[in-house]
Specification:
Blueprint lengths: L7 H7 L20 E9 L5 E7 H6 L9 E3 H15 L3 H48 L8 H36 L1 H9 L1 H5 L4 H6 L1
Antiparallel strand pairs: 1-2, 2-3
Helix pairs in contact: 4-5, 4-6
Length: about 210
């Protein structure tokens, strides 16, 4: 927990044994402090405690604080938030903005890949010209014998060119995968529309991640 590379928010979420869906997300609208998950002492018929989100000021200072938020029933606020997100996913403007954000992200990732492809293509072209020069030299009777060192150099050029061509093919495949997100707008819209229904099919931990 104290390791510097550990995300403290992730640690707090993992420590939530009662499964508060909005742990680490909700903030008190009156005093601005975080709303802390809080199980009540009283339990439901199934033996599980009633769950609340409690204003941190109230949790620390009790009746001494002026904050009027106090306790918010966890199931109710979680149902409202999930419902709002589900409704937002049905609005054309939200879908359009989401698709636009995905496209911007994909284009931002594609640009450096294209730069890498251009670099490799340039080097491949240079190597091919050198190979052609060596081949021309080998067939020129006036150039003298084609020495072992020139043969080795030709092999090195060919091996390096083949290696770069493989790398370029991998980069082109990565671009192809990212470009799928640029064109499949209907799939994005369908996923947004399905948000609310899908939430009900997930486990508590999966819902948090989702």
């Amino acid at each position: 927990a104290i390791a510097p590379e550990v995300d403290r928010r992730t640690v707090r979420i993992d420590e939530d044994k009662h499964g508060h869906l909005l742990k680490g997300v909700l903030v008190c609208g009156q005093c601005g402090t975080a709303l802390t998950p809080h199980p009540a002492g009283k339990k439901r018929k199934d033996g599980k405690p009633y769950l609340y989100y409690t204003c941190t000021n109230v949790a620390k200072h009790g009746t001494k604080t002026d904050c009027g938020v106090r306790n918010i029933p966890a199931p109710a606020i979680e149902e409202i938030v999930v419902g709002v997100l589900g409704e937002l996913g049905k609005h054309p403007e939200v879908i359009e903005q989401t698709i636009g954000t995905i496209r911007q992200g994909a284009l931002a990732e594609i640009a450096p890949l294209k730069e890498e492809i251009a670099k490799r293509s340039k080097e491949i072209g240079d190597l091919k010209r050198r190979e052609d020069e060596l081949a021309k030299h080998a067939t020129d009777p006036r150039a003298g014998g084609f020495t072992t060192s020139l043969l080795n150099q030709g092999r090195e050029f060919a091996e390096r060119r083949e290696h770069l061509e493989r790398e370029r093919a991998v980069l082109q495949a990565q671009i192809g995968m990212k470009e799928v997100g640029l064109v499949d707008s209907e799939k994005v819209a369908a996923q947004l529309r399905a948000f609310h229904g899908l939430m009900n099919e997930l486990s508590a931990d999966e819902q948090k991640d989702f």
